[in-house]
Amino acid sequence: MRRASIALVSRLNRRKALVPFLARDFSCQFSSAAVADGPPRTSGAAPSATSRSENVNTHVEKPKRVSSRGRTNEKRRQLEEAFESAKTSNEMLAAFKEMEGEFSERGLGLALLKLGLQLDKEGEDPERALAFATRALNAFDDVKKPNLSVAMALQLMGSVNFSLKNFKESLGYLSRADKVIGELAEEEEEGQVRAVLHGVHQVMANVKTALCRREEALENLKKCLEIKEKMLGKDSIEVGKASRDLAEAYAGTLNLKEALPHCLKALQIHGLRFGLDSVEVAHDRRLLGVIYTGLGMHEEALKQNKFAREVFKNSGVGSDRLHAGIEAANMQIALGKYDQAVRTLKAVVEATDEDSETRASVFVSMGKALCNLENFPDAKRCLEIALGILGKKEKEDPADVSKCYVEIAIQYETMNEFENAITLLHRALKMLEKLPQEQHSLASAYARIGHLLMLTGKVSPAIPYLESAAEIMSECFGSSHYSVAYIYSNLGSAYLELDKPHESVKMFGVAKSIMDSALGPQHIDSLEARKNMSTAYSALGMYDSAVEMLQEAINGYERHGPAAEDELAESKQILEDLKKKARCGSLEEPRSKPLLLP
What we know:
Serine Threonine Protein Phosphatase 5, Tetratricopeptide repeat, 28 helices
């Protein structure tokens, strides 16, 4: 998109209608017409042919004089041509330095913009790019009537501030750019306005993702896809890429049902454009495997993953092949094929570099497979190897390392080594708290610490962790996301343990409402939420409400058939106890169940 922005500036340079506010000297710079003045005319009559004939042997004609203005314009034309022909940022900077002495600051506006865009595209010196972007915006921004150049300068300011991690400032400039473009929609050429608008929404999506406002970022990415479809056609390569980007974003918010059609669309387009054996199609299939895994379609996930790995192998794309191999093993683990997963990982580890993060990831997954095989000694050895590698990478790649720590903590939890798990999660927290773009991972770590504290009987200390997790997760994914519901459910269980049934009913009620909306009232976890609410109502002595809520859960379990027969039997027993309690009033309260975090 940055390359497209630079090309657009070059087109703006040749359109006088877009730069009426520029000084006259700079408007000449972007004109294809000659700018040199003709020779000055005298007020007297032109000499006669006779006079010239008479003086042909005795008079040498003087060269025509060029006016001072003409010489200035000619020099400026040469300078602008040198700037336009520059290919690299160094060449552009050298040409621009020559221009600075000849043009006013306002007259330099478009050159400043183009240079800023070039530096932003290269990404090596964002501070310098910011300086040029600021000058460009100042050159354009005092014009009363909005124009496309102002919008482009604002978009550039947003992009550079994003590179500098000035996220709030970036959003401010991008919002202004969006507003300017909205005012220009009916005045400018539609294609050019759309091109700039796409750049604005693309950077907005990046900024919001960095701020962990992922649900909002989805709206910007959908707008990017819509613009590309209108500009380039629904089957263009760029639309294929935008569809995959949107699928990845949906997968990042765990909204896999929405991710699936966009990934399939990308696969279809790339298959037509590049061929089914292409690397682009392999990337689509690898993502499709991840999506199918999340949807519980593990066999289909393995099928897509296998195809992707074969293409990566034949194309020599080693790193993608290794990561796809790890994903394949995780799919096999999900299918209960633990021995097969171990064999897959042994093949992958042989191709990894010593002390690489990829190697650490292999041992994390191998530990998971061995843990499921209840081979705890070997599982611990694998996790220790992974920890040894990851400890050296904390400063280099804190985001990925912290996520691995969380995954290892889950394995320790499976082996009932809760203190080791909590210690490792705190280690992850220290890194995640410094990474604003990883707020969702931070929320997950808080939630898991709270969950583990509850399991070890430390209920009161668990509550602040769970509350922080709910707050951060709501900011990341929205307050109605199902991941938030699991945290509220654990809060409900915690308050019930602390003999605070009123708070418990409130938390369980929030969890139930979210699950009904996000998962559907018949989802197994939505039924568990009803069961927990029944327990809280019973603790308050509200037996009629408790019976009603539990009956809803029982009706749902019956629809699930054999898959929920244990839950059904337990719920029916609790219902009988509740009915007795309603009559007699003094049976021990059933315990609510904290829902396992997704």
